[in-house]
Amino acid sequence: MTPSAAVNTDATGFVIRGYDPVAFFTEGRPLPGHPDLSAEYEGGTYLFATAANRDAFKAKPERYAPRYGGYCAYGVAVGKKFDIDPGSWRIVDGKLFFNLNPVILEKWSRESGEFIRKSEGNWPRIRSKAPLEL
User: What mean pLDDT value characterizes the chain?
Assistant: First the structure.
């Protein structure tokens, strides 16, 4: 399957660099997923640490999938698509957001509401574009 431009995949084709999206909610930390526990969503492949996490994701992917296809939330706020550091994350209003690195995460976190508002406005325009087109 060819990944969609709307989803940030790594060189192996996984979203969130192969980390389990459900674990951020249930464990409060990044957990690497296993290739034999996967699910497809919006053109990307997600990996999971447990079958229960995979099943929870399959039942409600919109609850667990990262916003902006796993691209950096700050980047989307400024109209770009940046890669992410799986350790630079926050859950805000029940939604999972990633950022480029800890420095950008800190900046984004200080005004997350404003950055989210900008990102929500930008995402429909940039969603289907490749990062290098922006």
Answer: 95
